[in-house]
């Protein structure tokens, strides 16, 4: 069984196998899907094109209760794209995790997901759920506030898949002035979610009013580059998930 592991080889931060991929259990997430009111072409690799006009974005915050690299929180930003094979998914220009070195290293080294450490919170107060991203402490980069007060209806469910493709760029800088060792690769990967069912047998997948604000723009962490146009959908989800690398779409 092909093994996946990090370095040092005798004491890696993470390990697993390619047959089963990763596992994320007892997950909770809040997210907003919206039209992007800014130019995204400069953020995308040349092999990917926006899947819609205007481009569609997603911003979410997830709490992974358990995983093969331990529990952690994650904030992700994505642009809906179409790849050279005609499939759609989300390119990830920005992604952050709480202080979990294995989650950070495995995401960057295996998938090229540009993970950084940050302060992320997902809290509930009354009927409201709020997710926040700060880097460093006190520098509020974004806030998602949602009131998930109804089940997601079938019409909205069509734009919401349990299988989702993702794309990221894995980059290794050269080791010297001659460019030796440099690699820039477009990686395609995916997640498959199984939504938790409540006591009545219904999926824990809710929608309702949602707001997304970029509270304090930063040139160091420019998550605000995905400018919010029209909010299309807000969701609150509880699920288990698996993650698998699919292929290299380019190897330059």
UniProtKB/TrEMBL annotation:
Listed GO MF terms: lyase activity
Pfam families, per the entry: ADC
Lineage top rank: taxon: Bacteria
SUPFAM superfamilies in the cross-refs: Acetoacetate decarboxylase-like (SSF160104)
Name the record gives this protein: Acetoacetate decarboxylase
The species this protein was found in: Bradyrhizobium neotropicale
